[in-house]
Amino acid sequence: MIRPANSIEKIYLCRDPVDFRKAINGLSMIVEEVLCLDPFSSQLFVFTNKRRNKIKILVWDKTGFILWLKALDKAQFKWPRKHQNTVFTVNGQQLNWLLDGIDIFAMKPHKTLRYSTVL
After folding, report:
1. Residue ranges per structural domain of the chain
2. Element of type H or E holding 11
């Protein structure tokens, strides 16, 4: 499993939901034009959709962009809503907790789902 390092000090979460039809080019434009940050900075930028059941993570790795996607089956990611700024920062450990389904604001996990087949 690919995970960000827990030691990363600053990761940027885009507070407002984005259109998940956007891929690397569209998300990097949001980083530059909406968040007013440098998409080539090797920082991680995290986005969610309107239903908050998917996360995309964008990062520049010296030679190109990497785009990760995580989709939840029956839950929602707890996302900062009452924050005044367009961007919210977390560290690597907090992002991993978020990816694990933990509400980083209440420290409460999602229910674990078990399936035997995708059919």
Report:
1. 11-109
2. strand 11-14
pLDDT tier at 46, thresholds 50, 70, 90? very high
Q: Which two tokens stand for residue 31?
A: 């980083």
φ, ψ dihedrals at 60, nearest 5°? -95, 130
Q: Is residue 59 classed as helix, strand or coil in its secondary structure? A: strand
Instruction: Give the Cα separation of 1 and 76 in Å (integer).
Output: 21
Mean pLDDT of 31-37: 95
Candidates 72, 68, 78; CA nearest to 98 is: 78
Residues in the chain: 119
Q: What is this structure's pTM?
A: 0.83
* pLDDT band with cut points at 50, 70 and 90 for residue 103: confident
